[in-house]
Amino acid sequence: MRAMVQTAFGGPEVLAAQDVPTPEIARDEALIAVAACGVNRMDLLQRTGPALLPGFVLPHVAGMDVAGTVVAVGANVRDLAVGARVVVDPTLGCGDCTFCQVGDFGYCGGVAVTGGNRPGGFAEYVAVKAVQVHPVPDEVPLTTAAALPSSWATAYHALFPVGRLAAGETLLVQAAASAVSLAAVQLALEAGARVVAVAGSQAKLDAVRALGVEHCVPLGADPVEYVRDLTGGRGAEIALDHVGPATWPASLGALGVRGRLVFMGQTSGDQVAFGLAGAYHRELALLGSGAYTPDDFHRALKAFWSGRLSAPIAAQFPLEELATAFDVLTDRATIGKVVVTP
Description:
There is one protein chain. The chain has 2 domains: 2-147 and 312-341, Medium-chain alcohol dehydrogenases, catalytic domain (Quinone Oxidoreductase, Chain A, domain 1), CATH 3.90.180.10; 152-288, Quinone Oxidoreductase, Chain A, domain 1 (Alpha-Beta Complex). 26% of the residues lie in helices and 25% in strands. It is built from 11 helices and 17 strands. Strands 3, 4, 5, 8, 9, 16 and 17 form a 7-stranded mixed sheet that branches. A 6-stranded parallel sheet has the order 12-11-10-13-14-15, with helices on both faces.
């Protein structure tokens, strides 16, 4: 089969299309013919190095967000048929440790991540455990399904188990046209929250409005003032920030008394500074959102399968143009998810 193989750490030159053996499956696994695979920042970070996941070895086939068709199943697989259209939850724990016992696979010391430290979906075929596979409704294109796994499960985990978002609350979302934020704004609207979106271009604001967000901070306006005006001076109950230092002051400033800042990324840097007095006098909660759980993944898919939500595709490339797909992923003009197809 053809696969995009990473042979070193560095730029696009460390990736090359190669003919490699089609994976053999174990008794509890399924072989998936990849229809599409989403491109993630984790893929890019592990390409440039150093590796972020334990057990990562070179050569490596990345690609975490896989959708495709089952072409073979192992002898012990009973509830999965050849020909099924599926999407893959990339994260799987050992099943025995204390983290796995409560569903926190992402914190398992032996975590296996398809495309992260196991061969992934930037290939014609991928082998995964059958328990990682979820059916895709016939009306949902597999390209769309490949845009869901990491972004939608991450957004669901941040909003609900971590952020405890409730109907009627005001939610500020930074970088609202990214793939994870587009998922978050829709999930929040479905939950009955009032969403305030911040984005870096008019095209991005227009894309967010098209998904039903009424309150978008105009370009050049102060998000803190906008939220204060909208809420009668009270401030937002919750803010979602995966940007970091560039947006942290506005995210904190927009919160009202006992507001919650859910943070989950650092695309603008890893270090922030803020005044303690302004935080503790308002009794703010700073909530880090890390690895999603299998239940988060299931609930995020269930919400999307309702048919009312959208997963915009920013761009689609053939497998051999993965390097170009990475370039688009890092382009600040990108709206939604980048995917590749074998």
